[in-house]
Amino acid sequence: MLYRGFLLFCCVSTMLAQPAARKLRVISFGAHPDDCDYRAGGTAAKFARLGHQVKFVALTNGDAGHQSEGGGALARRRRAEAQEAGRRLGIASYEVLDNHDGELLPTLPVRHQVIRRIREWNADIVLAPRPWDYHPDHRYTGAVVQDAAYMVVVPNVCPDTPALRKNPVFLYHEDEFQRPNPFRPDVAIDIDDTFEAKVSAFDAHVSQMYEWGPFLDDALASVPKDPVARREWLRKGWFSGPPAPAVLKALEKWYGPRAQTIRHAEAFEVCEYGHRPTEQELRELFPFLPQTK
Amino acid sequence: MLYRGFLLFCCVSTMLAQPAARKLRVISFGAHPDDCDYRAGGTAAKFARLGHQVKFVALTNGDAGHQSEGGGALARRRRAEAQEAGRRLGIASYEVLDNHDGELLPTLPVRHQVIRRIREWNADIVLAPRPWDYHPDHRYTGAVVQDAAYMVVVPNVCPDTPALRKNPVFLYHEDEFQRPNPFRPDVAIDIDDTFEAKVSAFDAHVSQMYEWGPFLDDALASVPKDPVARREWLRKGWFSGPPAPAVLKALEKWYGPRAQTIRHAEAFEVCEYGHRPTEQELRELFPFLPQTK
Amino acid sequence: MLYRGFLLFCCVSTMLAQPAARKLRVISFGAHPDDCDYRAGGTAAKFARLGHQVKFVALTNGDAGHQSEGGGALARRRRAEAQEAGRRLGIASYEVLDNHDGELLPTLPVRHQVIRRIREWNADIVLAPRPWDYHPDHRYTGAVVQDAAYMVVVPNVCPDTPALRKNPVFLYHEDEFQRPNPFRPDVAIDIDDTFEAKVSAFDAHVSQMYEWGPFLDDALASVPKDPVARREWLRKGWFSGPPAPAVLKALEKWYGPRAQTIRHAEAFEVCEYGHRPTEQELRELFPFLPQTK
Amino acid sequence: MLYRGFLLFCCVSTMLAQPAARKLRVISFGAHPDDCDYRAGGTAAKFARLGHQVKFVALTNGDAGHQSEGGGALARRRRAEAQEAGRRLGIASYEVLDNHDGELLPTLPVRHQVIRRIREWNADIVLAPRPWDYHPDHRYTGAVVQDAAYMVVVPNVCPDTPALRKNPVFLYHEDEFQRPNPFRPDVAIDIDDTFEAKVSAFDAHVSQMYEWGPFLDDALASVPKDPVARREWLRKGWFSGPPAPAVLKALEKWYGPRAQTIRHAEAFEVCEYGHRPTEQELRELFPFLPQTK
Amino acid sequence: MLYRGFLLFCCVSTMLAQPAARKLRVISFGAHPDDCDYRAGGTAAKFARLGHQVKFVALTNGDAGHQSEGGGALARRRRAEAQEAGRRLGIASYEVLDNHDGELLPTLPVRHQVIRRIREWNADIVLAPRPWDYHPDHRYTGAVVQDAAYMVVVPNVCPDTPALRKNPVFLYHEDEFQRPNPFRPDVAIDIDDTFEAKVSAFDAHVSQMYEWGPFLDDALASVPKDPVARREWLRKGWFSGPPAPAVLKALEKWYGPRAQTIRHAEAFEVCEYGHRPTEQELRELFPFLPQTK
Amino acid sequence: MLYRGFLLFCCVSTMLAQPAARKLRVISFGAHPDDCDYRAGGTAAKFARLGHQVKFVALTNGDAGHQSEGGGALARRRRAEAQEAGRRLGIASYEVLDNHDGELLPTLPVRHQVIRRIREWNADIVLAPRPWDYHPDHRYTGAVVQDAAYMVVVPNVCPDTPALRKNPVFLYHEDEFQRPNPFRPDVAIDIDDTFEAKVSAFDAHVSQMYEWGPFLDDALASVPKDPVARREWLRKGWFSGPPAPAVLKALEKWYGPRAQTIRHAEAFEVCEYGHRPTEQELRELFPFLPQTK
Predict the structure, then answer these.
(1) F176 near E CB under 8 A
(2) CB E100 within 8 A of CB E61
(3) What are residue D266's phi and psi, to 5 degrees?
(4) Residue A95 to residue A84: CA distance in whole angstroms
């Protein structure tokens, strides 16, 4: 199936006709019911506050993510936590698919779940992890979203769900892995204004933040009992570092000198397999970026 | 299974004894019944004109590649288009395997299909896409040909088809993707003399060039009705650009100063998983390259 | 499942409390019953001589690795060869799993085999090939060990085998492949003192070294009949070259000026998906490296 | 998991408390978007006319069922035909799942699709083909509904969809196959009053009744062009025979002497894997059966 | 592979040379960690008391069998319950394989698990459910043990585990399903003397007998708190009925007139796919049957 | 997909127009390269002698069927044996597919292999084992041929191979298994005139008849060395029994009183999933049956 070369001579009209008025539709995929929050929670809250439609999708139900709970009971607990996290971020939807945690593979059934979610959301922007990450579920989430990237426009695939007529922009979540190639922050977002909402969303994942994660780090004893104290503990543990050097550089590109004052940021890399936006399109897709005139 | 290190001390005799007289056997794999044409059609025609044996193989039957047709009927239409394209290129065979379009995965059955095709063709050269590409079928075509690369010499694998005694040279088709690493044009071929045959082969894929592709680009209305006009439209749409900078550089390496005059080229990257040819072997394998004395 | 970020604020106590007294536990995965020997045999023998526990695991039974034998009979022959090779290296265990040679895929059942082996061995160090290699079984061994890397600490995965409380250090075997990125020798080991044991282990794989390998290289006639002579022939064929330039550089980093005198070395790259050791930790994990005071 | 034996001592309260007032919920599974119509269309219409909720589910999208069409386009055509057929029967829902026609296997993903449909419908009655039938899709529909039969009450399976607290009654559609054992009509329904609706539903499947089916029987030329005539042709072709002898006997059991006057009937066999109804429960579940006082 | 016909002319020597002295080796497969107990617990205890070696194997870890627990934690709880049940029966081993409950399929990896268990146990007798049962895990346990039945003697299958030289006798557990054909009690065993051990083994499965099972039957409130009372409740609930008529008839065949006094029995059907024992061999294999002189 | 009912009113013209002149096309599937010989070798030879076209297909390559050989080498040996056996029977083709022995499952790729073979052979008659048999490969051969039975007429399935316009008659090979239902000899063939050819075909499978089979029965020592003697030994061992009682009855039906004199017979059961022949059609399909006038 040939496709790309064709674009060379097609007169591509502006992708977004009236950016100011337009409501954007954003969908973010993660492997587990807290992954999107960590990598895109602040940006999602920014979209939501401007009235755009944001949906998070966890490809697994998280039923392996605990030291002493598991199965359907844990899945139901985590679904409820995800709902609460979504509420705190102000996003329109947080869907948790019912695939086993720790067993995700880039199969056709999972690919089709992704294709249908993107189409049904009529997404302008699709976010997902890169296929390079420490957790196999994360890697295969990245792989399967890549596998869906072009297919969302092919009507013969998943014919029960009308195909999109335009390929969305696909962007990768930030990560710190270097092999086979490091994450490249094509766009970086100042989330200082929604940072508390992000921490609050994190705080909603009680099973993860205050039980399973600390267990893994042999730090259960250090988790404060008091709700306020433990949220503070959470903020400090997860978010006390500055942006990575490459992200800082990207912030400078997009925000100019004031980048130095930004304390919390999220960054994204354009995936080559979806629509490849111009810089101007990126400004339209992330309308809270400083707009050039 | 250890293998490579052994080569360090084996006295490898020249791979090709009498290059001048020898008929080369070339096989190219694509995901769909037009992919090989785009990436290797001009080179294939050059081989064919010199009397070498070229075979194209599409790993899927293309049954998803249309906005309003599909299934077996579309597969049959595309098989006929492929046959016609092969005829126009002058190649010996254009085989379309009957796997579903849009559902290719690097499974053992598909790997075995590839192994058998390479062995039966007794290939000197195997061409395929890289496993990095916008279309999952393309990526998995690359992956599955990689998976076959060494196995073609192992008699216990697919024992019904005699194993090759020498590993062919595997080369990747050109693409423009940068992640995780860009295509590296190890060899670049001037196809100006067969360019019209390549356009003509493209023109044979009516369902793709004049229906499905333009539909995807919202350009159906711009497709000329007149056969001559639409072929011109096709040529301009797909092939009006110059070679990529890296390809141009490779042309200079292989063709010297006259590279600047070359308007159409195809390029290939040596895959590390097959036999790794010396520069001299590459000249013997692509006998239309300027030969050093 | 979030995990990594958490480490940023946890006070990680020294990983290895009493390095001097401690017995290390090392496990190395290969695709076939000779792969570990080639990439880690010398290092394994060094560990073993110091009283550390080393286990080699071949993920396939090698039943395709011969020109005229195959199936269960060949698998049994190769298992016996592996046992003998393990004996010659002095390692504690050489396990050969019963998956078909030439058909390995990174499935959940194989992943679980790997997870259980790592846990049962209570490994400090896990060695495996990178997922880039000429042989698909090698690549998928790399992939499936990556897929196990984090999962060894998750109790809900393979709950019949107690999860580790600390993620081991995962390291890749050396290889010479360049795409998508070359092997990076994070640590390099002088194996001159165990080199003869490594050659001897190689020599135990009679079916591979003196039958199948030479057959592949059309060199059967050159294999000496005499046991002493053929071992010499083996040594020369496989191990006569100097360390690769990057490995030499790594030797210089770890051994200082005396690196120039090292004739045989093995090198490893830290995998980002397991525990990421500091340089000091690497010295503790490879106690035969020169220790800084 | 033990379950059945337990029932021996449990005091089972009457399954249906107030049969008269209660609205029953019926779901029928077929392989293709016309299978339920043929085997249960008349009964479904009877349920619907009494205000009960009936849903038909086709497990495949029918994209192989035509001599010259196929793929997504055919799937969409057949989905529309199914909607129209459902409308003519008066049932509440006709869902067509997007699995390939001719490729259905009893996999876990398909099983989970079935479990969720039964739970979401909160079904009292589940209808499906037996796993013995000429078409593999029919057989595997039967197998996969069997595989779901007990699982609908297990909360740890598909935990995103609340489990039923009572196992529905599962019944098989009638068929004429004798091996390994013939269909046993445990209940038979007089459908003379809804027979025309059933024929009308059949008539809605234009692609099947007037194109694909006649093609298979080499009878395309005999299909009348006139809508009224072709419906008559359809009625005669499909429904002119009397009930099978065993069904007639079942009609006598349930309807007494007036069974002889019944011209069209549908029959069902109780599946041992769901709740096993008493005769009284069957009367409550099929409230249009003559009620004993 | 031809095999059976051969037996027609082979002079088969008596299978069991010295029945009196010989220690029999019995292995029973169930889907979940209580299935074997229910269908063969009494017989197993009889074997054990005579010094024969009995092993129970659950093919799944039971991690779905509870209303509010699940995953690894439940699997560990059930493994411990199974160990305790095995202890109470006096059998040599109760192994719980780590496949997901509710997801068992007759795949090659599971088949190989079964083959290895039978070989390692060097079984004379293999017990398993029929492939007809209400629970899909039960059915597929039956199917996969059938799939292993002949393979245990083929050395090329699972070559890491020495093949048996004689096919064991395979027998099905009793069940009450009628389709496609009812269970046929080829042999029936009086278990009155081990009945209390069987009840005691049942009682060890606390999660199943007093939590999950009663939940399914809406009978949680009726479970006594007192350990003695609840065991009595268990005995009454599960085992108060008389043997099924066909089993009673089999008891008469094997025990003669005293069959009428037997209150608890277990019955087995000879599977045609293993060695087919003569009546005399059955007496030797079940040495607690009345022996003919 | 509805199909069968349609036949009720279609005027089916005689299936075989000119039986006398017509050359029949027969294809038989077995799991291993000797299964067809045993169950249909005599009948195949009769067809062949009358000039009809017969093809045997083994779905696996038999690479597990030996005590000391295996893999590709054994597969090649058995392919050669099959070729020789086919030659001795006089049939047109004996194809051995390259699936692993002992690992056959009724997957879609294998189903498609079967569909293509039946179509390419343009078969009138398809023979295969029942899905009830001691060897899993035999059972799954039966299952997968059933799965192909209707699909051979559907053009959208395997669209690269033109669909048949008429469904062949499918018949099962004879076997002796009783559960869930015994084999029913719908037609029985006197093969006394081709019996020696059948024995001779058997004799060609040296690896099976004189090595692997006797090994399984602990009878290796009893195999004569002399070629003539061992063939006699083979004949006696495999074929000394009379036809089974049900087959004898079938012979009487088809041959009348002379059935008593028939010493060797083969029998077949009509599969309900293909075309269901009338008695007259069966006589036309087996033209060596006594013809009624």
Answers:
(1) yes
(2) yes
(3) -125, 145
(4) 12
H, E, C per residue of chain E: CCCCHHHHCCCCCCCCCCCCCCCCEEEEEECCCCHHHHHHHHHHHHHHHCCCEEEEEEEECCCCCCCCCCHHHHHHHHHHHHHHHHHHHCCCEEEEEEECCCCCCCCHHHHHHHHHHHHHHCCCEEEECCCCCCCHHHHHHHHHHHHHHCHHHCCCCCCCCCCCCCCCEEEEECCCCCCCCCCCCCEEEECHHHHHHHHHHHHHCHHHHHHHHHHHCCCHHHCCCCHHHHHHHHHHHHHCCCCCHHHHHHHHHHHHHHHHHCCCEEEEEECCCCCCCCHHHHHHHCCCCCCCC
**Chain A residues closer than 8 Å to E64 by CB:** 71-72
Give the CA distances from residue B91 to residues A1, B48, B130, B173, in Å, rounded to whole numbers and listed in that order.
Answer: 20, 6, 23, 18
What's residue F39's pLDDT?
98
pLDDT tens digits, residue range A124-133? 999 999 999 9
Whole-number Å distance between alpha carbons of F47 and F91: 8
Residues of D in contact with B71 (CB under 8 A): 63-64, 66, 69-71, 73-74
Which parts of chain A sit beneath pLDDT 50?
A: 4-17
Asked whether at least 3 C-beta pairs link D and B within 8 Å, the reply is: yes
The answer to whether A38 contacts C273, with C-beta atoms less than 8 Å apart, is no
Residues in chain D: 293
Closest C-alpha to A25, from A97, A91, A79: A91
Q: How confident is the model at residue B13 (pLDDT cuts 50, 70, 90)?
A: very low
Residues of B in contact with F79 (CB under 8 A): 160
Mean pLDDT of D146-175: 98
Cα D6 from chain centre? 30
pLDDT at site B92: 98
Q: Cα(C206)–Cα(A40) distance, rounded to whole angstroms?
A: 56
Tell me how far apart the alpha carbons of residues F186 and F183 are, in angstroms, rounded to a whole number. Answer: 9
- Between CA C272 and CA C146 the distance in angstroms is 9
Q: What residue of B is the nearest CA neighbor of D63?
A: B71
Q: Which residues of D touch A71 (CB under 8 A)?
A: 156, 159
For A124, the token pair is 């302008």
Residues of chain E with Cβ-Cβ distance to C109 below 8 Å are 109
Chain centre to alpha carbon of residue C213? 20
- How big is the B-D interface in CB pairs under 8 Å? 33
Chain F: residue whose CA lies nearest to B155: F72
**pLDDT tens-place string over residues E214-271:** 999 999 999 999 999 999 999 999 999 999 999 999 999 999 999 999 999 999 999 9
Do the chains contact at E219 and D5, CB–CB below 8 Å? no
User: Between chains, do A8 and B241 touch, taking CB under 8 Å as contact?
Assistant: yes
Question: A209: buried, middle or exposed (CB in 10 Å: 19+, 13-18, 0-12)?
Answer: buried
Q: Given its phi and psi angles, is residue B71 left (phi above 0), alpha (psi -120 to 50 degrees) or beta?
A: left
**Integer Cα distance of C33 and C99 in angstroms:** 12
Give the predicted TM-score (pTM) of the model: 0.96
The CB density around residue B123, as the number of other CB atoms within 10 Å, is 24
Residue pLDDT, tens place only, A148-198: 999 999 999 999 999 999 999 999 999 999 999 999 999 999 999 999 999
Tokens 């997007």 correspond to D98
Average pLDDT, chain F: 94
Q: Where are the beta strands (DSSP E) in D76-186?
A: 93-99, 125-128, 169-173
Q: Cβ–Cβ of E64/A74 closer than 8 Å? A: no
